[in-house]
Structure prediction request, 1520 residues.
Amino acid sequence: MQRIRLGMVGGGEGAFIGEVHRMASRLDDRYQLCAGALCSDANRSIRSGLKIGLSEQRCYTSYEKMIKVEQNRPDGIEVVAIVTPNHLHFKVAKKFLSAGIHVICDKPITINSDEARELIELAERARLILAVTYNYSGYPMVRQAKEMVQSGELGELRVINTHYAQDWLTEPLENSGHKQANWRVDPEKSGIGGCIGDIGTHAYHLSTFITQLRARTLCADLSSFVKGRRLDDNAHVMIRYENNVKGMIWASQVAPGNGNNLKIQIYGDKGGLVWQQEQPNELIFTPYNKPTQVLIRGSDNLSDDANNYSRIPIGHPEGYIEGFANIYKEIADAIVVSRDGQKTIYDNFLFPSGLDGLDGMKFVEAVVESNNQDSDWVSL
Amino acid sequence: MQRIRLGMVGGGEGAFIGEVHRMASRLDDRYQLCAGALCSDANRSIRSGLKIGLSEQRCYTSYEKMIKVEQNRPDGIEVVAIVTPNHLHFKVAKKFLSAGIHVICDKPITINSDEARELIELAERARLILAVTYNYSGYPMVRQAKEMVQSGELGELRVINTHYAQDWLTEPLENSGHKQANWRVDPEKSGIGGCIGDIGTHAYHLSTFITQLRARTLCADLSSFVKGRRLDDNAHVMIRYENNVKGMIWASQVAPGNGNNLKIQIYGDKGGLVWQQEQPNELIFTPYNKPTQVLIRGSDNLSDDANNYSRIPIGHPEGYIEGFANIYKEIADAIVVSRDGQKTIYDNFLFPSGLDGLDGMKFVEAVVESNNQDSDWVSL
Amino acid sequence: MQRIRLGMVGGGEGAFIGEVHRMASRLDDRYQLCAGALCSDANRSIRSGLKIGLSEQRCYTSYEKMIKVEQNRPDGIEVVAIVTPNHLHFKVAKKFLSAGIHVICDKPITINSDEARELIELAERARLILAVTYNYSGYPMVRQAKEMVQSGELGELRVINTHYAQDWLTEPLENSGHKQANWRVDPEKSGIGGCIGDIGTHAYHLSTFITQLRARTLCADLSSFVKGRRLDDNAHVMIRYENNVKGMIWASQVAPGNGNNLKIQIYGDKGGLVWQQEQPNELIFTPYNKPTQVLIRGSDNLSDDANNYSRIPIGHPEGYIEGFANIYKEIADAIVVSRDGQKTIYDNFLFPSGLDGLDGMKFVEAVVESNNQDSDWVSL
Amino acid sequence: MQRIRLGMVGGGEGAFIGEVHRMASRLDDRYQLCAGALCSDANRSIRSGLKIGLSEQRCYTSYEKMIKVEQNRPDGIEVVAIVTPNHLHFKVAKKFLSAGIHVICDKPITINSDEARELIELAERARLILAVTYNYSGYPMVRQAKEMVQSGELGELRVINTHYAQDWLTEPLENSGHKQANWRVDPEKSGIGGCIGDIGTHAYHLSTFITQLRARTLCADLSSFVKGRRLDDNAHVMIRYENNVKGMIWASQVAPGNGNNLKIQIYGDKGGLVWQQEQPNELIFTPYNKPTQVLIRGSDNLSDDANNYSRIPIGHPEGYIEGFANIYKEIADAIVVSRDGQKTIYDNFLFPSGLDGLDGMKFVEAVVESNNQDSDWVSL
Prediction:
């Protein structure tokens, strides 16, 4: 099968998530990275491209130039991965979609919901794929959890508690020139949400992905514990989901001892599920009044979704890159389907799309609004 | 050393917590259980007393009779343990205090804060001990946590997240004659709080015990998931503690897979601590940017508080009964001090007193009020 | 019910295991400690006895005197707990059995198998109970494991791997006057086994208790890693159990990071079990090709043996003292049965008896013999 | 940088480890897979090659043909990955080395040590790389462990206990046509070792890699628990390493509940280390008499080796494929160094070479010999 021709915007020297996208695209050999505009600085952009093995003529000094050239090459890119800081997502994605090129956008899709809606409509009209890398939904055991909830193994849902805690912003790194910290705490580059946008949206997406329930209203309390920090670095949120399900999200980047501690607990009247990103190959399931079971990736009797997105046998741990690669793999399937100009039926796929991106934006906006209104309940 | 003469009200046949109090009192051989009014029914009360080895003449048919007789015996009881359903705590405690007998009361101290205040004043005037068994504060590693927070090992505190989850009320047990379930979901016997009173107060007390911070305001969302249940069985609470510390409490009795899952996470600008009741011998400590440490009960270099309330070497697990017994042990020390009629200086001891009981009442009242006001912030 | 009158030999000031026996005897209120000869030094013996609340006249200066007096009191002790260093077990036990008093002996029962056999015969003839506190068999989840193995849930057994690792003898503590270390590394006081006798026998007993299989032959490699230490501080043993079951025991007191890490893994053709003493409330069970289950003390559907020796609900951890107390509780039942002079039918009880003590001796002797013969296979 | 041209022998339809090698080679984009002889059957070989994207002309019907063609192409392969069943490793590797092509061979390198020696000499003479994929040594935290042991953080070593347990051969899968099971239990295809060769050698290599100590003598007890199985499916081995270090290896493929449970514990007079393959991002370190530390991949203050072979931040789990890819990455570095005909200095690299392969063979041969001699100590 012919590899999908992929371009990338962002992800040059010193970046983190760009290399993750590249590894994810390579793992299953479904893509060939052909072109890139990796940095805003022209020289660094070229240098970064050469370093990762792009041919010189397809290392572009700007994404606009990249579009212009690539859309006229017979072997031009079919899809672009956008891995820039948040505030650029919208205008870059818009240009690529307008040029007829599928878009894989890192989260958050944009920095507000109006922009997200605009991109969704644009992709819809152009029959193009607009994917957003809420990558944690790519883990096989998350897909197993989704399948179990949907098939009723927990009964009627009651409680969804999710947290996402890190500790790397415990001190004011942004004051000492730390590149990753810098833009994340800058409202111009990140939007109105700090940690709630950076990681809180992952937590929220995970909860909606597994349960297929969306928040109706929420009530939030944000903090910026580090002196002088302009965006939140800790968020407490109470949520009322659809169907009278109650929940909480705690997101923090100032919680020492937490590397990347994303955890979800889901309870219904027939059972409970717990999944933790740092032990992603396990899913803990307790049918009410029966022994707790440890379900493990790669074992028999898991759902098709879990098995299809698993590569190696039980006990051989898969991790973050593999989960991320599952999103890429499924997008590849969708691109193949759409090669004849067919519109992508998102419902046939589980990868997060622009609609999930929009939900994330609405979540962040509601959280900030609630916080500004002394934690009143705010509808999404 | 002469054993302290102990009486008990409640804790007869079919009860759970009474036997825990008795084991706790026996473990360190500081008490002798001499008298009891164990059931409201006179016959069962006698039968229950004989069964646990009380002499016949000190098995009483009512607590009033017990007071009358015991206060006139030269070897009458010095202290009474009150382990009845919640609604009786107040009137029983009041009578014993009025008769000059120290009181150890199971939590919650009363069913509202006015009653709690009355008992506190009564004990104060009579120079008697009024202890409340928030027993989780008796675990050695909880005391270690307290010591570490107080000595600044976490730096300036920022976040306190606590949860207490159980699953035994997932189904409407109260409809099938389950004694423990019955009174817990009955407002007449439990007061205005269901799970928030039964276990949420334990979580709240734990957070205040370790950090020595009290909630200033809170905002709560209560649920009664089981149809027909008159009190809450799930509570989400956002808290603003003193000193700008933020927190959350989640309490639930409908979370399958949770036996008695009390857990606290505390974060400051220099480090984090995690403790879980189901693995009580461990305390997880992460100094910021250093490796996480597993502190274990019985090891060297723990604080005096932790070591003094530890009985056996590292790796030999102590559990719930031992933690409970630590409360009893310390109350024994306090009773000895007060034998000459001295007033107990609570600050010299760590066991929870009437003031902690009152805090618990205020917490429950604030949670219920906030919930009734659409989750407005309510001051304590 | 009348409490059983208990005496104690050993366990005075500075001792460890004596206080454990006392707490274990108190927990369920089945015993009353009435008499003691707690130290070899007469003065310290009296002082120690008074300190723990014995009446002055029953604090004896020697165990011989204690026997003489107690056997002539109408309320003399019915049973004695022997908690001296190992080398004294035999002669003390022999005297008490000869005087018609039941014996609870700390392990190892003696320092060689001939002595063990002599005690067994003596007890047999006198229709007295001779119990040995291999206390780990008292944990409810160990009893659950036994029940599951016996009822065939693992199928035909194949492999039993057990280890017991500690770290407290990593350095030559015995050279700095550490009382517990001193006698344990002294062949005169401990017998021919160092760590293999002190903790290896616990591991071996645990394996035989759960599986009801005894070792047929074994092959061992002992080490004394600490310079100048006269007894082994590390033991590797390969075992061939009955029924063609293979196994290993590793015992070590020089393994930093191990507090009291006793762990057993049992595998059959239908499933596997894992139990760890440091998390004693859990038993991990995997039926072949099905999800691993976490069985928890206090939950429904456990065996009667597990439930009968459990005191508090699921999630409220019980520990070492509770497990030890289960041995005492069951011995109390046996003593009650034997009060009319009936011979104790050990098969009706699970507490370890002299026969288990003898097995332990044979195990240690075989290990040392194999080690001395360049790890040849040695029969037990 | 130009990608290294890679060929593959074995790894066609239905194979497992071939795809792992391919993913490992792709992850860091250092290789381009150009040619393959993937199956012994000519048609399936072509079909398999096309399926994974090889050009038709470089899908070969036999490895001999592949060598002949590739060595004459200007863009012929530089290195071949051999992923056939064990018994073919030797003759395939010999041919490629003879043709001047580097070899990456799956373990075990051959089926006896004479063959291993021959390959090593051949590679040596030809100045070619001969690598063996003992992939577990590629995990960053294994490299951290090696660094810590070598720098003396454990002090003088005393005990090395390693186990590798699986459960997938609990039942006679080989009788029902299971391809992976079939050849593993067939002495013609696997050599004299069953589970001891398949996984026991991984455990042994891991122990030597981290400690840089080799076994001097060992003493083994093998079992074939499944009726009719011709090779061992369970092995207990006692080992005396160099420097008076004692150890054990337990390997089993009939231990229900064990997916791929490779675990090593190393103890010295100053500390202990524990690492488990199923939680590969953690390394547990206890300096004697200090709190246990949890070292985590991606955190600061780890060794260069650990950090250089880590791709993503702390808390974002890396797994088996990433560890395997580290071996490939380092081999790529070595190939680049050797491109000018220089001999590879293995000491500059950590990837396992033919010498490690030979050690594995000697280990298996000694285990089988000891077992055949009633578990006598056998020198390696």
Observations:
- The interface with chain C takes residues 1, 3, 16, 19-20, 22-23, 26-29, 52-53, 166, 168, 258-261, 277-281, 296, 298-299, 311-322 of chain B (CB under 8 Å).
- The CA atoms of residues 208 and 214 of chain B lie 6 Å apart.
- The mean pLDDT of chain B is 95.
